[in-house]
Amino acid sequence: MPPFEKSMEMIPFKQRKCLASRKDEGFSIRSKFPNKLPVIVERYIREKHLPLMDKSKFLVPFEFTIGQFISLLRSKIDLDSSQALYLLVSENHMTCLTASMGEVYSQYSDQDGFLYMTYASQDMFG
C-alpha cells in the first residue's frame, strides 16, 4: 500500500468527509439496505498493538449482537484467542455483549446516520 493511502486510513472518517457528504452516504445506504445498519469501525488513535483493518465500513443486520460483531472484527483483524479486543461505541461507551446492533444504533447513532465504533486493546485503559 502506498504511504499516502496508509496515512489516509489513520485520519478518522468524520474528518475525511464533510457532514453533508456523510449524511447523503448514510441516507443512501439506509435506503438501499433497509434491514442493515451502516457502521464505521476505526482503530483507537493511540492503539499500538492491534493492526489497522483493511476496511472501516460495515453493513450489519439489526439482530446481530455486539458479541457477534466483535467475533467478526476479531476474524478481520486476525487476532488469536489470547489477544484482547475492546469495542467502544461513540468513542467512549462500552455496551453489553448481548445488546443487539439495532438497540445500540438507536441509542448511539450519529446525526449523519452512521454508528461509530472504535476498537482497541487493553492498553487504552492505563
TrEMBL record:
A Pfam family it matches: ATG8
Record bears the keyword Lipoprotein: yes
Chief place of localization: cytoplasm
Protein name, as recorded: Microtubule-associated proteins 1A/1B light chain 3C
Keywords: Autophagy, Cytoplasm, Cytoplasmic vesicle, Lipoprotein, Membrane
GO biological process entries: macroautophagy; response to stress
SUPFAM superfamilies assigned: Ubiquitin-like
Single GO cellular component term: autophagosome
UniProt KW Lipoprotein keyword: yes
Gene that specifies this protein: map1lc3cl
Cellular localisation: Cytoplasmic vesicle, Autophagosome; Endomembrane system
Sequence similarity: Belongs to the ATG8 family.
